[in-house]
Structures are given as C-alpha cells and as structure tokens.
Design brief:
Layout lengths: L3 H12 L8 H27 L13 H4 L8 H17 L8 H12 L7 H11 L7 H17 L13 H11 L7 E3 L6 H14 L3 H8 L2 E5 L2 H13 L6 E4 L16 E6 L24 H12 E12 L8 H12 E8 L13 E8 L5 E6 L21 H7 L8 E5 H6 L20 H27 L2
Parallel strand pairs: 1-2, 1-4, 2-3, 4-5, 6-8
Antiparallel strand pairs: 5-7, 6-7, 8-9
Helix pairs in contact: 1-6, 2-11, 4-5, 4-6, 5-11, 8-9, 12-13
Length: about 475
Amino acid sequence: MVNISGIIKSIQNIMRQDKGLNGDAQRIEQLGWMLFLKIFDDKDIEMELLQEEYTSPIPSELQWRNWAKDDEGMTGDALLKFVDNELFPRLKTLPSAATNKRALLIKEVFDGNNNYMKSGTLIRQVINKLDEIDFNSSEDKHLFGEIYETILKELQSAGNSGEFYTPRAITQFITQMVDPKLGEIVFDPACGTGGFLVNAIEHIRKNEVNSIEDRLILQKSIKGTELKPLPHMLALTNLILHDIEVPDIVYDDALSRELTSITQKDRVDCILANPPFGGTVTDGMETNFPSTYRTRESADLFLILMIQYLKNNGRAGIVLPDGSLTGDGVKARIREKLLTDCNLHTIIRLPNSVFQPYASVATNLLFFTKGTPTKEIWYYEHKLPDGQKAYSKTRPIKISEFDGLKEWWNNREENEQAWKVNIKTIKNNGFNLDIKNPHKEEEEEIHTSSELLDMLHKSFIQSDELLNKLKKELVNV
C-alpha cells in the first residue's frame, strides 16, 4: 500500500529546501498546481480509455505523462526553463479555451497561480514523489482524499488563507440536514476549496447514484463560484478527484453580478455556503444591489444574493457570524427580507472557537427554505464537549458531536439547549435574531476576598481622581 501521508510529508520537506518558496501558503500553492496537472492527466488517461472520441485539451508535449513521468527525465536548469518558459505561458493561453470547458479550467488555473520554485533539481524530486500516487487507483484516490483534507487544514494557519477552510464536521452536518437529492442543483457562491460541494457529491452518490445515467446527472448538478486563484485551483482539483470531469466552478466574485440579472434560469435547489465575513467587499460591488440593501459587509450582501439564487421551495444551510443577526438600518432590512421571503426554521448557535485559529468570532448555522414567510424560529445551542474549554487546531469540532442535535431535528421539543421564538417577538425587537438561550442562567463571576478588596481599592482611586478633577474645574469657573 502506498504511504500517501509519507509522500506528502517528503514533498513538503523537499520544498522547504527551495529558496523560492516562502511560507506555507506558497508551498501549498506550488503543490496545488502540480497536483492539479497530475490529477488532470490521470483523469485524461482514464477518459481516453473509456471514450474513444476523447482528446485531451493539453498539447501532447505539455501533458504530465510526457514531461514529468520519467523519474530520470528532464531536471535541473532544463526543467526549470521548461516550467517557466514553456509550461506556464502555453497553458495560460490554450487556444481551445474559448470552446473547450476542460481547456478553460486549465487556462484559469495557470493564469492565477505561479511556479515559485527556483531549483529544477528540487522540482524533479517533488515530481518523482507525486508520481508514486496513482489517481486512477480507487484505493489511492480514497487515501488521498484524507490527505487532501489535511492539506486544506494547513491553510488555516497559512497567512490569510485560513478563510477558505470550513471544518469538515460543519460541512458534513449542514449537507446532511439540507439533504440535496439527485437532479437538484447544488450551489456555493463562495466555495473556497470546495468543501461543501464535495460533501454534497458524496452525500448524493452514497444515497442515490446507481447507474451511469445517475453519474451524468450528478456531473451537471454541482456549481460554485470562487474569487481567489489558490482556493479556486484547489476546489477544481478536489472536484476532479471526486469524479466531476468538468467542475463548474466559476473563477469570479459572485457579488459582481447585478442582483436583478439573476432570474429563474439561474436559480438553484440547494445552497450550502460559508460566505466570507468580517471584511468589506471590493469597491463598487454594493452597487449591484438595490439601494435599500447596500452595505460593504460581505456576509450581509451574500445573504441577499443567496435568497435571490434560491428557487421557490429551495433550501439553504449557511454559516453566518453574530454580526449578521443584529444591527439596525440596512442589516435589519436584510433580515426582514430573509424572514419575509423565506422560512428561517432553525438557527444553530456555535461556540466562539469553532473557526480557530483563523477566527474567534461567534458563528451560527442558519437553515431556511424559500417561498413561505417565517412564523417561528427554533434555536439550538451547540455546546463544547465535556471538559473541553475551546476548539483548536489539534482538537477541532467533530461530526459525532452533532448526534444529539440530529436526533432532536425531526422531533423538536424545548430543552436546556433548544428554544422557540415566534415571528411577532422578532418583529417587535427590530428583527434582531441574536436571541440568547432563555434556559441558561447568567453565570455569576466568583471572586476571592483579596480580588474583591483589590477591585474596591481601584474603585476608590478612580473616585478620588474624579473628585479632584471636579474640584479643579469648579475652581476655574
């Protein structure tokens, strides 16, 4: 059995020796385009065997099998020159990209990424390690799926790239609750590295794919959009690895489309998403939205966008920060639209540390169906496992923690973690959705005698300072 984990570690060690690579983010991008090209070529070989008429969009001399496969082939300066002066420039300008969707994928990947390595000898060593993996072997493919997850997790601590990774337990749980079916269009407008889309593929395949016809339907059912080149490339690779021959991942900002241009033909059955939050959108993007909903907060604009994209009776499961649940003005109007156009039936409140180390902001899982207004909302507070104070990189949230919630989902009753709020209460409160658990008593802070004395002492000092300031002001009157 191939030790894929060992291969990936060896590759990372080789890359650390190259003076052109600076930090984890660049190493992941470098590994990303190499993986993409190898996986693409392995898929090409499979398709050539299964489809007599199939021809790869990559010119023969640029195919992985013809320049990388020979472990004693091109190396050193010759290999570096080939990658920088032949491979990248030609794949960025494939003439067939205008008419061939697989060619367009390649063009977009190589347009947005770089070869950072400066040593052709080390590039050869990385290539030889990658060639120990056969992506047409179902065993290797399955094992690599697990390793791919660990590579994506490393993005959490690789500079600003952590925003592209949603914990697998969250993507799994949301997918299971939304329950996409074969033939339904599943969409993620900010898909990052494709975690939600891959979970949807696995969920549908496990439950409903039984024939070649079913596979073809699934191929056309998964859609995404991603703005940044590194996660876009990783999402494409992830979907190809999961047997989507031509992933429909648009390389663009989903917010760049005018809201009113999204009509019935564009609408989808299911949205699974963790839209970017905590940042502002690109200048001018808010003008694509009606003036009543214009804001620079990305999560709020994505919420409006997702409502627009859903079909009647379409279902959504999304991640939103606490900041989107409260606030006046535009924020309140966006929430009012959500509650008017959709049945927001469930909000899962998560602990602050779910997205650490990338972010410690409090987040929520929102589940809604478009077409009927909200009459009541069920809230459920997800608790940390007993004895655990916070989630971390080494102790992330696990899918098994949602077992109790799944049991409650179809047989809802109020308990210490679950409560129900009617729409009248929410309207009277300015459409505020940030509603705390009524069954949870406010924890009293317990202080020792010495701490209380210290607090009292500081209070006296502050009082004296204020009195002296007041005396001076009265004297100067």
